[in-house]
Amino acid sequence: MENARMSQVLKFNFLVFLLILLKAEGFFVxxxxxxxxxxxxxxxxxxxxPAYHFDKGTGSGINNWFVHVEGxxxxxxxxxxxxxxxxxxxSSKEMAKQVAFSGLLSxxxxxxxxxxxxxxxxxxxxxxxxxxxxxxxxxxxxxxHFRGARVFGAVIEDLMAKGMKNAENAILSGCSAGxxxxxxxxxxxxxxVPASAKVKCLSDAGYFINTKDVSGAQHIEKFYSQVVETxxxxxxxxxxxxxxxxxxxxxxxxxxxxxxxxxxxxxNAAYDSWQIKNILAPxxxxxxxxxxxxxxxxxxCSADQLDVMQGFRSDFLRALAVVGNxxxxxxxxxxxxxxxxxxxxETWLRSDSPVLQKTTIAKAxxxxxxxxxxxHQIDCPYPCNPTCHxxxxxxxxxxxxxxxxxNNTTNGTSNTSSSATRVSFPHLSKExxxxxxxxxxxxxxxxxxxxxxxxxx
Length: 457
What we know:
ten-stranded mixed β-sheet; 34% helix; two-stranded antiparallel sheet; secreted; 457 residues
């Protein structure tokens, strides 16, 4: 009896904790479908309308706009695009009706002091090519629509009609494949918003580099070329790059960023966990799985593997060097094993968030945007930074991977939005982690399901 009573008390306390956590660090925002975009051919892979989540600005932020693009990787051929077509990464019908806003999208001044009262938008990602594709023909057998560039235009047009035409300040940001979107479309975004507005871009975990994998092959270069060819992306990639290089190379930021004229800030881990898993040591380059345990948890890496990862960091910094060191281009490059650090409150701004020069990501970005001070910091090599939140991944689910991650290289998603790879957050309890994954995957329905299940345990 005493044990049963204690169990009930613990469950009640945990439910209270969940509600407090939700109120303190996140809130749910409903989905908006752009129905009139369908007539313009601006649609997801399956032909459904584009969508976004919009929380309106208030007070001094009423004419300020923060447009954040969701991550979700890429599909490089008909087979991998068909695998995404019936998921939230290819169809707005499959998207959660509400998503949690936190981190850079938070509406709490203490958690997001510079942008909490702005108009904050999360653009859903359903085209598979970082909003660059545009193929007029639709194969009747597959019904695949490669129209990402049109979707981007339709989203911006819809937001303009809802007040962004009066923007005084505006930011285009994104995480992972969305972070690449914010790079490739930075100047385009700057040209679309009012000329009088202060416009800058922010890329989180979007600086994917062109380097060899552990077998010596240029796996990611071939993959990106296939993405560009499949989606007809060439005409929508920066002309400053495609006039010099093959279009496939222009999907890599290192060949594009030096020509971007709109101010842009890069947040990235030098040991980006997605890039380590899928560019440096993809499954195709590691047939015997020697890197499997290391990729799940950096603490499991051997001395030799860590040496290889240090080499990856060197390659990353060389690719980053083209950014230069001007006040218009900022960077926060930490030495964490992570991927996407702006969407989660624990890494954006909290008492235990990662810091460089005693500065959190939120403060670095805010200071840079408002011209309070430039920020251009690169961390020392791993494991020098004790403030890092290094991700620990769960073992892959073969069934899910067969559907969502063909070749182990098609789903460059953020930790906060991936349906194929789950991660744990060491600073949270297992119960909180489990609930977090439900909420991320299913929105408000996930939280309700978690509460019901916990009550009936």
